[in-house]
Amino acid sequence: MLDANLIQLTQSARGDAPLVKSKRLLGGVFTVSGGLHTWTNNLYYSPAWLAEAGVVLQLGHGGGECPSHRQYTSGDSWEDEDDWTSDEEDDNDVEATAAAHSRSADGSRPAAATYTGNQTAMVIVDTTGIHRIPVWWCGCEGAPSDEMQLLDMALYPASHRRVKSCFTFRVLDDFLLDNLECKTSALNFYSKLRRTTNSTFPDQVPNRYQELLRVSRQWGHMKDMMRHGFGYPGRARPGPGDLTFFCAACPQPGVNLPPEWKEDENQLIYTRGFMMDGNFSAEHLKMRRPANDVAISDGTGFMVGEGRYKAHLKVAKEVKSKSSCNNHKAVNLANADRHKLEATGIGATACPRHGCFLPHAVVDFQKGERQMNMDYSFSQALGRNMENIQRVILLYDINCQYGVHLRQRFTESPYLHMPRRLEIVQGIGLFHVHGHQDACFMRYSPTFIPGAGLVDGEILETLWSSLNKVSGSTRGMATSHRKEVLNRHMNDWNWKKMINIVPALRKKYTANLPLMEDVTTSYNAMVASADPEMIQAWTVQMEEAQRKRLTDVKAMDVFDIRTDRAPSRADIQLSLTDKETQHGLQRGTIAWLSQGIKVQEAQVSLAAHVRSLPKSPTTEQKIDLLNRRKRLQTRVDAHEGKKARYIVIEDNDEDDNDKDVDDDLGEEWDAVEPDDVFWAAPARVSGNAIRLAERVAITLPSTLGHARCEALNIQQLAARELKLREGQANDTLHQIRICLGQKSFLFRTSIRSARSQHNKTRAWGDVNAVDRTLQHHARVYSKARKAMVSLGASEALLNHYKVLRQEDLKVSTAVADPNMRGQRATTMAWFWTMDIRGDAEGQAWMEEFYRINWIKAKSRYDRVREEHDLLKHEILWTNIFFVHQSEAWINRMRACLSDDLAGHRAFAGKQADMFKALADEASALHKFTMNGQ
Fold first, then answer.
1. Which residues of 885-919 are buried (b: 16+ CB within 10 A; e: fewer)?
2. What pTM, to 2 d.p., does this model score?
3. What is the pLDDT of residues 622-637, one digit of tens each?
4. How many Å from the N-terminal Cα to the C-terminal Cα in the chain?
5. What is the sign, positive or negative, of the torsion defined by CA atoms of 514, 517, 522, 525?
């Protein structure tokens, strides 16, 4: 390290400190509280260099003077130094381009002749600024090389021939930490150092930006080699993914599992979880001169190695597919090409429970998110500590498409590997699965996957949000430099996950205890109130579906309601859209009609919200209402802006938007009469009659009326809206049946069995939540039927879609318990039988509701108990992981007995103690869980 006096001087070498007191040094230089200054024009202090104070950096003797020291020759002055020598091309780095303006800044440097003798100053970059200090090299016989003399003083040389610039270890550490935590680019970091050195004329400070780029890459790689034990006896070269940290809590044979784990009867607990996703923000521009790219390491981090990956892409078959589910962007844009980009994004695999990137499993996209890219990522993930693990849960946003021919693609590629007997259960994250078709929820939701625990399958989204903060600076970097930066940030993410894993597991374990108690109580009450024979039959259904899902995921459809349904609005809209040009309608007509119907539904919902507000709403409620109205008004304007394309209204016609719709916003459903099994509190009604977004009439044929539609010659448009209204009515009646079934189910299984005030309050809260949803669907149905009447619907159609009355929505005992004594002559509401073939009784619906609700409750009960068991095992595995790491470092320390490996031995001992401290923390938590707490 630098001697104490030099450190003290460099720490105070700022030129903008207040003038408090001064001390005279050499050459007319003074220390003025906080910096080095010269007394200028007998008036004021101005910044001074350390060299002007007589400071000399003496190497080779611990800061002492060397009797045989040698100095720079005049030919070594910095003026002939090429400040722009770099392994990267300027035009391939955004930062380099932005720094080009400062190339001539060195013209203000003091001449070499200003220093004593023929010595010249070396530029030393430190956290306190950029300094010029004369250097005396050790010239003793057997002296270390110049580079080693600098390294002994904690200075890293910028080159390895004629060293004229160097960086202190701490400035390199500071830059890497700034880049990780603050996402500071090299350009901004070096600009800060220049301003620190001379805030008034930063351009006059020596420019070593390009050197910082190069040196920081080397420094970061060496730090990674140290942290992962390379350079020790027996560990010379890192392999794929070896310079990475990975999850301490995921089951990894040979790393954190007990020796007897294969004899455990509960093998489900050793299921490995993987989640895959793509990120299109991490794109990369093509290099103009890729031959100049120099890779320090390839494939040792999270980004996969170039050679094998490119070989895989050459032989992989490109499948251009259209999504057979909903319109998924990742599927439809899989083959999108952007010619200016070398990479359109990245794809990664992570552990879904703890959020750690899988080593050597991050791939670049050449076009879009293609299956061949994600196949390679998944294949590399399967090769990471997976010996003898027989089951994997794979979560991916588009698994309903991706997983169809997964094994076939792996079989056909020589670069993909998958254990032959590996069981792969495919799932979709809880957020994205609701954007799929209804069937995908039962087939792919983690809620119905045994062994998944309480996992949402969306954790990679949080990882992307952090990584995207640095994506802007990596976009224009050289290819290898970009990969190194991404690797460093992903490794830092995994590092923070690792050192914080014990507090995270403690928090999850503690939070799961009351949840498990509540779920167990509810489930036991449900079982006690149900027919044992039915529960046994439903259990057999569940187990059979789970067995068959591996070969036919459609087997999971038994988890959904199996009664017949009338065509939904989406079904009718799709059918009408396919035929709109055949009937002389403009393209987009059906979509415009559907948009208007959706806006009306939003109006009904917002109007109900307004009526539910208190007479004196709070400021927060007023702001929320204002924002809701703005969003709704935007949708209204978007719909009305297109009406001229489909409906031509003369200027002298009445403006059909000038009337409000107060009489058709569902106020009649605000105060539903009390059922004979629960009481619904009526909402307060606001008297606001101001024409607002929720009270604007939407231009549709139903708004104009049947007679007006004939006068405007838009009967075909009216007929199409009538069909859409039928679908809207079918949808809402289906939801009404579900809500009533849910209410009766809650009453039968929760209200009756509640034994405490807490359980009763919670059960009634669930009932009231369902009731609010029921009222919304009742409002929408009533509006749909009124629209049918306005459109001139036939008497037969109106008899099919009858008027909905408040008494129809009562959850009577005929619904709650149809087998109860005295219910033989009781009739149910008309909508219970309208969609069931053969005029079946409404009791079939209720049996389905009980079956589906029991399956969902049983699945949640199983997942919560699995979560409890998983957390206890993960805490144990974490303890074993840290012990394993500590022992590995102890073995490395013991292998470094010679004196020339003293530094290796010290670092290994430090690492061993660090992992032992983490192991002690995990061990304490493990004992806590084993004591039943």
1. bbebbbebbebbeeeebeebbebbeebbeebbebb
2. 0.73
3. 999 999 999 999 999 9
4. 51
5. negative
